[in-house]
Amino acid sequence: MSAEPTAPSQYENLSIKMVLSDMDGTLLRSDGSLPDGMFDLLRRLNHSGITFVPASGRQYATLANLFDGSTAGMPIVAENGATAKTDYKKGRPAQPC
Fold first, then answer.
1. Of 29, 30, 44, 60, which residue has the fewest beta carbons closer than 10 angstroms?
2. How far apart are CA 75 and CA 92, in angstroms?
3. Are 60 and 94 in contact (CB under 8 A)?
4. What is the 3-state secondary structure of the chain?
5. Cβ(42)–Cβ(34) below 8 Å
């Protein structure tokens, strides 16, 4: 017995508040860079009230640098889930979530 794919219309009335994505082998390209258009997507998500959360086994500083200063207010799950921080303002230490 195989599972039927879910129809996209089934999700029309949902209110998405957060998108969490693994980084290596999922979101990042094979060279370790973010896909084209990622910063525009982050702006659109933020404008829509949707929080983007990168999650990785990488260290927090590595992830924050990868997003090149776009981390203000962005929660980051790092070090295989051992660290969860939010960078409230550039130049200030990240705060635990």
1. 30
2. 14
3. yes
4. CCCCCCCHHHHCCCCCCEEEEEHHHHHCCCCCCCCCCHHHHHHHHHHCCCEEEEECCCCHHHHHHHCCCCCECEEEEEHHHCEEEEECCCCCCCEEC
5. no
pLDDT tens digits, 26-82: 999 999 999 998 988 888 888 888 889 999 999 988 888 888 767 677 889 999 999
Amino acid at 7: A
- What is the amino acid identity at position 92? R
- Give ∠ CA 17-26-9 in degrees, rounded to 5: 45
Count CB atoms within 10 A of the CB of residue 3.
5
Query: What single letter denotes the amino acid at residue 72?
Result: A
Distance CA 84, CA 97 (A): 6
